[in-house]
Amino acid sequence: MFNRDKWSEIIEALSSNWFRTLLTAFGVLWGIFILVILLAAGKGLENGVKQGFGGMATNTMFMWTQTPSKPYKGLPKGRRYNFKTGDVTAIKQNVPDLRFVSPRNQLGGFGGANNVVRGLKTGAFNVYGDYPEVIQQEPMDITSGRFINYSDINEKRKVAIIGEGVHKEMYETGEEVIGSYIKINGVNFMVIGTYKKKGNNNGDAEEAQKQIYVPFTAFSQAFNMGDIVGWMAITANDGTSITELKDKIFEVIKSRHTIHPEDDRAIGNFDLYQEFSKVNGLFVALKGVAYFVGILVLLSGIIGISNIMLIVVKERTNEIGVRRALGATPWSIRGQILMESIFLTIISGMAGIALATGLIAIINYQLDGMDTSDMMFANPSVDLGVVFVALSILIISGLLAGLIPAQNAIKVQPVDALRTE
């Protein structure tokens, strides 16, 4: 395979009409270029969408109460009920493979009335009563101070962590935040930290920075919630799907609140894992489309190479006849044609990969200087696996492109070939 004379002959054959060879090689170059760019663009879109989840624990379900749709054990349908703190303990005890069961309460909301006062400034913000685990379910960067801990929970400390948006609206530039006080619905809370949410939070990045977190126990005491739980964020252990555990969780709640076992409307839920799985499925489909389109474009280039090799074989009929007359075996003739085809395919394909890689590097260089947190596109790239797949496609394509011309070459009889002008 590494015979010097053979390679010299291949290079001489391909360079004898360099313009024709260049045009032929461009088809393969363009096909592999399109394939790599499509895969990189799909990866960039996937990175951007997953970035929007902000590192959130995707194996999580959010659960809240709704009105039962069926009467049960003398209780009417349409009644209202609330989760209780005892439900949290019951779920932990009866449903295995749960990592976090976080009860939450909330004040305020989008378009709500002003509920936070500091000096002469007022604002309307979402205020959450939470446990420390919430920072692992909804990751955020603590920009100063600290987050809630269990000492705050156990001692019912009236402390608060505010978002950067709250900081900007309620404080002057350069004003000290840590240790200051804000009044939430008439109750003073001391600020112990500030945060900035990760990701674009599904397009609500600005609103996500305008939230306030306080200890669940202090929230319940300050706002007379008793043992009421507004809603829960429940995360399963790694390797276990929260979707598979939902029914067991619902069974515990229905049993504790006398809800009909077949009432599917009494408990509202949002399964983040299920939605995330749909997103992953979408990107698998996009990758398949990218391979399909790229290979089709590449196929047109391969057909071009096969046609050119047929012409080359026709032009070298006399040469093939002489070689056959001098004792060349059919396999040596076939191997020569196949090597020329594979060589041309791989060289043009590698040029396409290099060109696509250069373009991807330029795009990433431009993105590095931009804030991509609010974008649905980030870090387009291809891994080594894609490169190996591309190389495999090139080798197989080269073999296919040269197969028919090679078979035609060995069918030429030496006497007929020598008579051909």
What is the number of independent domains? Answer: 2
Averaging pLDDT over every residue, what do you get?
A: 81
How far apart are the termini?
31 Å
Number of helices: 14
Q: Spell out the helices and strands N to C.
A: HHEEHEEEEHEHEHEEHEHEEHEHHHHH
Helix content: 40-55%
Shape verdict: elongated
DSSP strand content: 15-25%
The biggest sheet amounts to:
12 strands, mixed
Total count of strands: 14
- Taking pLDDT < 50 over at least 5 consecutive residues as the criterion, the unreliable ranges are none
Structural class: alpha+beta
Radius of gyration: 34 Å
Transmembrane segments: 21-41, 289-313, 342-365, 385-404
Protein name: ABC transporter permease
Subcellular location: Cell membrane
Pfam families: FtsX, MacB_PCD
Description of the molecule:
With 421 residues, the protein is of the alpha+beta class. The chain folds into 2 domains: 4-54 and 277-419, no CATH class; 60-270, no CATH class. It is built from 14 helices and 14 strands. The longest helix has 44 residues, at 272-315. It is elongated. The two termini are 31 Å apart. The model has no long low-confidence stretch (mean pLDDT 81).
